[in-house]
Amino acid sequence: MLRRHLLFSCLLLNLGLLSQVQGAPRVPESLTENGLIYCTNASGFSFNPQTADAGTSMNVVTEQIYNKLFEIKHHSATVTPSLAQSYSISADGKEIFINLRKGVKFHHTPWFTPTRDFNAEDVIFSINRVLGHNTYLPVLNQDNPVNGKNPQYRIFHEQAKKVRFPYFDSIRLNQKIKSITALNPYKIKIELFEPDSSILSHLASQYAIIFSQEYAYQLSADDNLTQLDTHPVGTGPYQVQDYVYNQYVRLLRHDNYWNKEAKIKHILVDLSTERTARLIKFFNNECQIAAYPEVSQLGLLHNNNERYYLQSAEGMNLSYLAFNFNKPLMRDAQIRQAISQSINRARIVRNIYHNTATVANNIIPNVSWASNINTPGFDFDYSPKYAKKVLANKNLQLNMWVLNEEQMYNPAPIKMAELIKWDLAQAGVNVKVRSVTRTFLLEQRNKKTEDYDMILTGWLAGNLDPDGFMRPILSCETKDEVTNLSNWCNPQFNELMDSALAATQLRERARNYNIAQDLVLEALPIIPIANAKRFLVANNKVKGVQMSPFGSINFSTLYFAKEKK
C-alpha cells in the first residue's frame, strides 16, 4: 500500500501537481475528531441554492441543512412527502392541498433561537419569496420613523425585492403558481393558473428549500435579510457550527431532527482543494469521502480494494454547443448540420471525460423517466468528409465563446473548445475561441452585446422532470435570457411542452416531451455532446452512501462500519 502511495505521489510530481497538493491547507485536527470529512470543492458553493445560478453544480451542504416539501423517489416521476405529510389535487388540476408535518423543529443556533415549530407560515414565506410576491417582506409603514422615514431601511426594502432566483425564474414559477394560502397552521393551498403536472417535481428540486419565516422577519427588523443566505437556519438533520470562507464548513447533528437521527455527530465539509488534491487528501486519510475526483485519475483506483470503493450515478445533465440564432449565418440549417457532423463527439468523451460519460444522442438524459432509449435520437453522426464538402468553400470565420468554469457536465471546457476548434478547422472553418466568465456573459446578455456565433455550455437539472430540463434552455419565454443561449424560439415546441404539463397520464406527458425533443433535434439549435456520470470515492469503513443523479448524498444515512475483532 505504501508503495502504491509513493507511486501515486511520483506521478503527481511528474505532472507538476505535488506542490499544489502540499500547498492545500490541512484541516485542523481539532475539527476532525468524532466525525467524518467530506472533500468537495467551493465552486458554486452557497448556503442558499435558491439564489444560485440555474444549471450549475449545487454543493451538497444545503441538502443537509434544509428540508423541502417533497423528495424525488427512486429516480421516478413520483415524489414522496418530506415536510409535507400528504397532498391532494383538485379535479380540475388547479388546486393543490398540502398537509404539513407537525412537530418539526428549527435549528437552535448562536444567531437564532426559534420560539415555535415549523408551520404553514414558513412554507408561504419561502414560496412567495421565489415567486417575487412582496408578501414575504414586512409591510413598510410610512408613519413609522424606524421604517418609513429611514432612507437606509427603504433602500434595504427595495433591494430585497430585487433578489433573483435563477432556477425559479427560468421555469417561470410565478406564471405557474397564482397564490399560496394557509387554510390552517398545518394545511396550505397552492392555486395554479393552469393545471401543471411538473409543480410537485419543482417543489422537490434541490432549489426548493424551506426557510424559517420567524428568522427572516427577525433579520428584516435588523435590516440584515442578507444573513438569511450566509447564516442558515433550517430543519435538516445537520446545522452549521463553523464556516471559513472557501475552506470548510463544520456541521453538527441536529438532535431534535424530526426524522431518523443522523448516526454521525460531526461532518466536516472540506472546500479547500481541487480535483487532484482531493484524491491525494483521500489517500492520505485526510477525508473519508472525496467527491468529483479528477476523471483522468480514476484509473488509479483499483476495484475490490480493501481501503476504498468508487460509486457512480447517471447524471441529469447535458453538455452542448449552442448556435446563436440572433446571427443570420447561424440560422442556416445546412451550416448547423455540417458543423454538427464535423465534431467528433466520441473523441471528446474519450479525451475530456476519459469514458466517464456517454455521447448524448438526445436532449433528455437517459436517467429521466421520460427518456425513450429506443428512439434513434441525434442522427447527424460524425462525417468529416460531408462537413468539409459543405463548409470548405464558405470561408467561415466564427466566434465561439466558452464559459471558463469547470462543471460536472464539462470538467475541461477550454480543452473541449480546442478539440471542437480543431475538428472545424479540418472542415475549413476558422474558429476563434474566447474564454468568458459567467459574470461577463450575464453582463453582455443584459446589454444584448454578446457577439458569439456559438457557445459551449451545459445544463444541470434539479429534478428528473423534462420540463425543468428543456424549458429553461430552449423555450420562447427564455429567448434572449442567460439560460437560452441559442436564442431559439419555436412556438410548436412551447405548445408540446405545455401539453405535457396539462396531461394527467405519465405516458402522455413523456410522449409530448419526446415529440418536443425530436423537434429540437431536427431544428438543431444546440448540438448535444455528452451526459456525464457522477463519481465519488469513499473509505470502506463508511457505509450508507447513496448518490443521487444530482450529485447529492444524504449525510444522515452515513455510518462507520464496526471494527472486526
TrEMBL record:
GO terms for cellular component: ATP-binding cassette (ABC) transporter complex; outer membrane-bounded periplasmic space. GO terms for molecular function: peptide transmembrane transporter activity. Pfam families: SBP_bac_5. Keywords: Signal. Residues 78-479 form the Solute-binding protein family domain. Residues 1-23 form the signal peptide. PROSITE patterns: SBP_BACTERIAL_5. GO terms for biological process: peptide transport. Belongs to the bacterial solute-binding protein 5 family. This is ABC transporter substrate-binding protein. It comes from Rodentibacter rarus. The lineage of its organism: Bacteria, Pseudomonadati, Pseudomonadota, Gammaproteobacteria, Pasteurellales.
